[in-house]
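Q: Here's a chain of 438 amino acids. Please give me its 3D structure as tokens.
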Amino acid sequence: MTIRFSTAITFLATFLLITPSFAQEAKQEDPAKTYQLLNLFSEVFEKVRTDYVEEKTDQEIIEAAIQGMLSSLDPHSSFLNADHFKDMQVQTKGQFGGLGIQVSMDPSGLVKVISPIDDTPAYKAGIKAGDLISHLDGEAVSGLTLNQAVDKMRGPVGSDITMTVRRNGEKPFDVTITRAVIKVPSVRNRLEGDVGYIRITSFTEQTEAGLKRAIDKFNKEKGDRLKGIVLDLRNNPGGLLDQAIAVSDAFLGRGEIVSTRSRRAEDIQRFNARPGDIADGLPIVVLINGGSASASEIVAGALQDHARALILGTRSFGKGSVQTILPLGVHGAMRLTTARYYTPSGRSIQAVGIEPDIKVELAKIEKINAGGGTREADLRGSLRNTDDNAEERQDKADKERNGDKKEKEELVDYQLSRALDLIEGISLYSEMPRNTEE
């Protein structure tokens, strides 16, 4: 593809001159200066075409220039060529190929893991939020754009890639991961006793419908015995804004959910909840951590500001910017940061994140022997319990004392355990009789 740059520059400069709104946004820049800068770009372009040590196509040079312009703005603005744009559209539908990690470019020049996606090759390999990737198959990622690094992570399903990972407090280590087709069910659910547990892995086109199915399932199986909901947004890197709004709206009966504010004051957008609460007022605990970003923070912030849920865990990622996808015809699209998110109370999420109401670090629970191993039932000649259900109660007590080896080997999710305890506590408190004066 060969481009006549003199024609392109003339067209662009004319556009700048005859478009008042554009000129106003550019703070009345001198058109002559703009011409000079465009001529500078043309000169550099021609030098690269003719003198660079390796031959590059016009398309490669121009796409690299556009990518450099956008990526210099912030970590989330970028150019998507036709193939990348197609991949992005597939991802929002909940199925794509790769390793199963959401990444961004760290200021150090390394690739930073925002979060691994549940049950994907990266998740199973032990990749964690906050990990820095320094090498891919022995090649340093420093100097690569984010899209270039992501390209290297992709490959045929079943092929391996070795990543060098840096993690706080540890020496760099290599992890070999086998690529796979990533199918991400956006919403998973199960019952934890009388508490409904809902895990949202990312906000895709499937999320709102998946949430409604989960609540319907809980109501069908538990009915009035359902005590509350735990909404798990840990390591959820975000996704579609409309789905984050829909999830928040599902639990809020009124009020603002989120607002977006761009550089122009008149472009403020406010999104409000409609009447109705899918959980019918049941207590909600939302789990977040450092891998909860963007759309996850919108949901957590909205429910927190309206006192509809208690937020438990650790501070979220802090991605409070809005990216707009602007199609560029057959050439792909550009992802441009156009606004910032604000919670209903007017808090900006950017770089600060959501602070949980109850801070609970991820921890490992170990049972300790506190002594007192001998009980009445162990004493020779002790009296037997003659109640009707004594045998059943004795079996239960024996099981608790002896423990189940399989259960001991399983890791306990401490944050989830605290959330479940919190729901149980709220439920018990609400059922306690109140003293009234007549």
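Q: Can you summarize the key feature?
A: The radius of gyration is 28 Å.
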